[in-house]
């Protein structure tokens, strides 16, 4: 069984500024600092934020899993697209064979863009009920946190 969910958030900040956070390791830092209800800790296992980077993510208690390793499989600075896949733990422990997140920063104007987050997944038929655990909400919360962080940094 396969599925996909997406979320879009418009941000009145230049796409290049948003990509500075999303394009590398700054996103994990921001999430750990500002969304303590989601991510307890992260460690860079390998890499510097480019393709092949592997992060060990430790989530807060109460989620269906505690630890996952994700690998950056695509980082396109020109198109502002980053894709990550869970390679160990996380949803893979729940019968999923693929859990991929695509983060896109889509330029609208010179001073506005859209943060588009997409989860694509495949789950074994015998674990199909676990597909209901897939939620785009954490990525909506992350996008809003990035937006608010960037907007608060702009002098008024």
Features:
Bet_v_I/MLP, 156 residues, Alpha-D-Glucose-1,6-Bisphosphate, Chain A, domain 4, protein phosphatase inhibitor activity, globular, 3 helices, START-like_dom_sf, signaling receptor activity, 7 strands, 7-stranded antiparallel sheet, alpha+beta, alkaloid metabolism
Could you explain how this protein is built, in words?
- The chain is α+β, with helices and mostly antiparallel strands.
- The chain has a single domain (2-153), classed as Alpha-D-Glucose-1,6-Bisphosphate, Chain A, domain 4 (2-Layer Sandwich), CATH 3.30.530.20.
- The protein has helices at residues 15-22, 26-34, 137-153, and strands spanning 2-11, 39-46, 54-59, 67-76, 81-89, 96-109, 112-123.
- The protein has a 7-stranded antiparallel sheet with strand order 1-7-6-5-4-3-2.
- Strand 5 (81-89) and strand 6 form a beta hairpin.
- The longest helix has 17 residues, at 137-153.
- The radius of gyration is 15 Å and the shape is globular.
- The N and C termini lie far apart (49 Å).
- The mean pLDDT is 94.
Furnish the topology, listing elements before pairings:
Blueprint: E1 2-11, H1 15-22, H2 26-34, E2 39-46, E3 54-59, E4 67-76, E5 81-89, E6 96-109, E7 112-123, H3 137-153
Antiparallel strand pairs: 1-7, 2-3, 3-4, 4-5, 5-6, 6-7
Compact overview of the structure:
GO terms for molecular function: abscisic acid binding; protein phosphatase inhibitor activity; signaling receptor activity. The chain is α+β, with helices and mostly antiparallel strands and 156 residues long.
